[in-house]
Amino acid sequence: MNLLREYIRELLTESVHPKIKEMIDALEKAKGYVEILPDRVIVWEPTEISPRRWVAMVAYETTAGARAGGKCGGAGGVVQSATAKTGMGPLAYDVAIEAQEGMGLISDRSVVSREARAVWDYYMNNRPDVEVVQLDDQYNTLTPEDEDNCDQTMADSYGLGDWESSSLSKLYKKSGTPVMDELRKRGMLK
Fold first, then answer.
1. Contact status, residue 180 vs residue 99, Cβ threshold 8 Å
2. What is the distance between the alpha carbons of residues 14 and 149, in angstroms, rounded to a whole number?
């Protein structure tokens, strides 16, 4: 079963998830683009009054570190996310995960909106192209190693005492950059 799952994941990393592809198509039709900065991903669309207006943004620290209460598997950590237009947030998250160069991304450790939590839940339950890695808490409850330790306060509050089952207790990563490659191919990545 693990070999089959690995094979499916490998096939999926070579292509863009259908829902993300729909977002890219809509963004292209609107003549928008995605910009990757050192600490954030911004999805832009032009408006009638402005050549560009942000419609989604995910800001992150490249290594979660002390702010996240542990090493968190070396992942980057979301520090803020926002959408001005419904529907483009997951595209920004996908690019932010890929921008971590295989190290992955974790949710904000202090505040997670209902909408952001829905994105993490979707990654955990519906995205076989995204690798989901369970992180430990700061007390080594799951593993003796410190490398995977991460503050699980948010996961605990949403998991109602069962923090390990929460999507916020995980690290999310991809082995490739299919979304960034597709955006680059279409001239939509800056």
1. yes
2. 31
Mean pLDDT over all residues of the chain? 89
Q: Which helix (H) or strand (E) is 58 found in, with range?
A: strand 53-61
Identify any residues that bridge with 189 across adjacent strands, giving them in sequence order.
Answer: 34
Taking the C-alpha atoms of residue 105 and residue 138, their distance in angstroms, rounded to an integer, is 18
Q: Positive or negative, the Cα torsion across 161, 165, 167, 172?
A: positive
> What is the reported pTM?
0.88
Give how far Cα 148 sits from Cα of 39, 132, 152, Å: 22, 13, 11
Q: What is the pLDDT of residues 147-176, one digit of tens each?
A: 999 999 889 887 667 899 999 999 999 989
Beta-carbon contacts of 149 under 8 Å, excluding residues fewer than 6 positions away, are: 69, 70, 71, 72, 135, 136, 137, 138, 140
Q: Which has the closest alpha carbon to 64: 175, 186, 177, 168?
A: 168
**Residue 175 CA, distance from chain mean position:** 13
Distance CA 19, CA 94 (A): 11
Helices (H), the chain: 2-13, 18-29, 89-99, 114-126, 153-159, 178-185
Q: What is the pLDDT of residues 116-132, one digit of tens each?
A: 999 999 999 999 999 99
Give the single-character DSSP code of 136.
B
